[in-house]
Amino acid sequence: MEIPSSLVDRLLDTWPVARLATSGTRGYPGALPIVFALVRGYLWTPVDGKPKRAGELARVRRVSENPHVELLLDEYHDDWSDLWWLRIEGEARVVEPPQPERDPDVAPVLAALRKKYPQYATVPVLRDPPTLLAIRPTRIRSWAASETALAALESRSR
In this structure, which CATH number among 2.40.110.10, 1.10.10.60, 2.30.110.10, 2.60.300.12 belongs to the domain 5-156? Predict the structure, then answer.
């Protein structure tokens, strides 16, 4: 069964992690867990200060080569009647603001990320050079195994 759109909106505001799938010009897929915030209709994910490899990250390179991405939010349980997923197809772009805290489009994103993730009190939201991905959803699909799964999801996303 489909997840109601009001619950989809709450999930996008509150769910802590998604998997981002990208594919560059060579066609090789890549997926990784990300944090994100929904701001003004876009899903934003930062290249933050957690330890990463040096240089340009594959997700940034792939989005530059091919903007078509997919996000997956889901939850697994041994009881399969509790399963659900939310899949978002979108078009992404790389955003590299020179002064992110002063940028009128980016500053609200940074505030939303800090509010959603208290870890950003001790980890920089952006590493140098400041880089984010902005994802415009183009199609949203969802599934829940049962009314019980929807009820549980509803109660957790409040």
Answer: 2.30.110.10
Q: pLDDT tens, 76-106?
A: 999 999 999 999 999 999 999 999 999 999 9
Going from N- to C-terminal start, the domains of the chain cover 5-156
DSSP the chain: -PPPHHHHHHHHHH---EEEEEE-TT--EEEEEE--EEETTEEEEE--SS---SSS-HHHHHHHH--EEEEEEEE--SSGGG-EEEEEEEEEEEE--SSGGG-TTTHHHHHHHHHH-GGGGTS-SS-SSP-EEEEEEEEEEEEES-HHHHHHHHHHT-
